[in-house]
Amino acid sequence: MRLLLVEDDNHVAAALSAVLARHGFEVTHARSGEEALQALVPEGEGFGVVLLDLGLPDQDGYEVCGKIRKRTSTPVIMVTARSDVRSRIHGLNLGADDYVVKPYDTGELLARIHAVSRRTAHEDAPGAAETTVRLGPVHIELPTRQVTVDGSVVPLTRKEFDLLALLAQRPGVVFRREQIISEVWRTSWEGTGRTLEVHVASLRAKLRMPALIETVRGVGYRLVAPTA
């Protein structure tokens, strides 16, 4: 897999590139936001994942993420020292598929890279069901991956849509956290649990229906279909 590493620290980039190469990745190193955007023209140059450090010298990392998402659907994993939920949700809203908080374990990073790449390959596979799920004012168009509330389109990231679509398969049924992580992230890695919490919070905020996704303490989540 080709991977675009956006990192302004040459020493960090060299060390990480060596590790990624040992695990079969072909790494292209961009030292700034502008270099990253140029590398992604046209159509992402076949990159499987973009690993985006937010501490860039020329542009705000969040701004770069938004620009990347406008020109390509290539999965983006943010690398940030900010561990608060608000910052993570902001990144996800801009189109990031996942995030890794510094300092991170190399195994954690590799697990997240493989998870987003597997999910992307799954989405691109033929044979997806052509159905629409209607839950009161919420309409989920599975073929086009579009969600509307009262007729207005709600832009969701890849993982947010996958999570909502999974829960909407069986409204009222509790999905275990382990099951959700396995189906949406295609991994059993335990550290993904925090990512799940952030995605649920982001979905509630975007849909403006906090009660739509109910937390079942100690078990998981379920979708509560609106009555009107």
UniProtKB/TrEMBL annotation:
> Which PROSITE patterns does UniProt cross-reference here?
OMPR_PHOB, RESPONSE_REGULATORY
User: What does the record give as the DNA-binding region?
Assistant: 130-225
Q: What keywords sit in the KW lines?
A: DNA-binding, Phosphoprotein, Transcription, Transcription regulation
Domain OmpR/PhoB-type positions: 130-225
Pfam family of this protein, just one? Response_reg
The record places domain Response regulatory at 2-117
Q: Where are residues bearing 4-aspartylphosphate located in the sequence?
A: 53
Cytoplasm: is it a keyword of this entry? no
Q: Does the keyword Transcription apply?
A: yes
Classification via InterPro entries: CheY-like_superfamily (IPR011006), OmpR/PhoB-type_DNA-bd (IPR001867), Sig_transdc_resp-reg_receiver (IPR001789), WalR-like (IPR039420), WH-like_DNA-bd_sf (IPR036388)
Q: What PANTHER family does this protein map onto?
A: REGULATOR OF RPOS, SENSORY TRANSDUCTION PROTEIN REGX3
Record-given protein name: Sensory transduction protein RegX3
